[in-house]
Amino acid sequence: KALCDAGMNAEFIYGSDDLDPMDSLPVYLPKEKWSPCMGMPLCNIPAPGEGAANYADYYFQEFQEVFEKLGVKPRIYKMSEVYKSGKLDKWIKIVLENADKIRETYKRVSGSEKGTEWLPFNVICEKCGKIGTTRVYDFDGKEVQYKCEPNLVAWAQGCGFESRTSPFNGNGKCPWK
Question: b/e string for 60-88 if b means 16 or more Cβ within 10 A?
Fold first, then answer.
């Protein structure tokens, strides 16, 4: 806004990371109803109230209300739509084909050691619909092999399903790092 007020050409672009997994549960939501959603992409979880298509949109409305009050008009995009559009498919393939370099970067930058089977991609389990519990460990150039691990994370339970699937067109996402 300050740049525009100063006569400069600027645009505020804001993204919703709605493909991220539900990794915490608000205390005011009933645990028995919402716990099964833990690990699912936020865009694939029902809205906890009226006026939104899904969980992510429901809470994203708060950001939009603040933008309106401030007079800010960002161009908003949803990561789920960007992934589904195929715009990132070329980059997903590059990431998967260069997993060794990414593992090396993790180690050099953060000291984090990823095993040689770790691939930088989170696929949505075809059986239970969770993204936060899947471990991708093979890529043949067209499909990834994965397992929905029962104990991969402390906040969600995977179903144990193992399969191969395409990583493209919204079937998963790259890690945020």
Answer: beeeeeeeeeeeeeeeeebbbeebbeeeb
Q: In sequence order, what are the beta bridge partners of 162?
A: 147
Is residue 46 within 8 A of residue 54, CB to CB? The reply is yes
- Establish how many alpha carbons lie within 13 A of residue 90's alpha carbon, considering only the half-sphere containing its beta carbon: 1
Tokens, residue 42: 């936020």
Alpha helices, DSSP H, located in 41-177: 55-70, 79-85, 89-97, 99-110
N residues, the chain: 177
Tokens of 85: 């559009």
Residue type, 21: P
Buried b (16+ CB within 10 A) or exposed e, 108-119: eeeeeebeeeeb
pLDDT in tens, 5-46: 899 999 989 999 999 999 999 999 999 999 999 999 999 999
Residue with tokens 């399969």: 163
Backbone angles phi, psi at 21, to 5 degrees: -80, 150
